Amino acid sequence: MLVVGLTGGIATGKSTVSSLLKSRQIPVIDADVLAREVVQPGTKGLTQIVAHFGSEVLLPDGTLDRKKVKRKKLNSIIHPAVSRAILWNVFWCWLRGEKICVVDVPLLIEGGLWKWMGKVTTIHHSSADIQLQRLMTRDNSSREDASARLNSQLPIAQKVEYADFVLDNSGSLQDLEQQVRSCLVKLERTAGWSWRLSWLFPPFALVSALWTLGFRFAKRSRRQSRRLVQGI
Q1: What is the pLDDT of residue 71?
Q2: Up-side HSE of residue 217: CA atoms within 13 Å toward CB?
Q3: How far apart are CA 103 and CA 114, in angstroms?
Q4: Which of 224, 8, 227, 220 is nearest to 115 (CA)?
Q5: Which residue has the higher pLDDT, 148 or 205?
């Protein structure tokens, strides 16, 4: 099974791309959904958050009031639980015999999860101003708050450097749909026939996964070395 990491900047259209993939029967594992699940009342994640910040971060119904928690610290607490949930969901996709599964993670690059993906797809928008306006409209936030959120993430230009496929959401929805279709054709070709063998013969799946991850790590290391040489 080919595991594809999907990422991009805030308000670049990840949700739209995820919906387009789901409409084509591609399973999408949403890290944002999992991040909410691992802090539900009664979970270990919420217990750890309360132990660190105190009970004042809870709403009257016992759920987490995210506005009272520093985002960076919250991410550091729940990151291990979200990673485990992603791994478990990927396993279930493999168990069902899926050919491709997509892992939608906003901080795929920053959190290092890109290293565990067979392929990485990044969504970007050529206009930073439009991206800012989208975020302000979506979250009903001020320009200052929206700018702070954008600046808290890795610049999209750097995320693109990690990508095997890049989707440009600067145009119409029809343009984006065409790019998604083209990307899926390439991903289907990459998955090839070996995914069936991986499903039927688990040891082959393990060897194939290790080879793929090792190859990607080596490729990324060579790319970084070339950039360092060019920068000297």
Answers
A1: 76
A2: 10
A3: 10
A4: 220
A5: 148
Neighbouring residues of 212: CB distance < 8 A, sequence distance ≥ 6: 118
Q: Residue holding tokens 């119904």?
A: 61
Closest alpha carbon to 82 in 105, 50, 100: 105
CA distance linking residue 174 with residue 111, whole number of Å: 32
- Which H/E stretch holds residue 62? none
In whole angstroms, give the CA distance from residue 115 to residue 191.
Answer: 18
Mean pLDDT of 82-99: 91
What is the separation of C-alpha 99 from the centre of its chain, rounded to a whole number of angstroms? 19
Supply the DSSP symbol for 63. Answer: -
3-class secondary structure, 231: helix
Sign of CA dihedral 105, 45, 73, 113: negative
Q: How far is CA 60 from the centre of its chain?
A: 31
CB 122 within 8 A of CB 160: yes
3-state SS track over 66-124: HHHCCHHHHHHHHHHHHHHHHHHHHHHHHHCCCCEEEEECCCCCCCCHHHHCCEEEEEE
Measured between alpha carbons, how far is residue 156 from residues 89, 118, 126, 150, 177 in Å?
Answer: 27, 20, 10, 10, 21
Give pLDDT tens digits for 99-158.
Answer: 999 999 988 998 888 888 888 998 887 677 777 787 888 878 788 887 887 777 788 888
Report how far residue 132's alpha carbon sits from residue 12's, in angstroms, rounded to the nearest whole number. 10
Give CA torsion, residues 17, 21, 27, 28, to 10 deg.
0
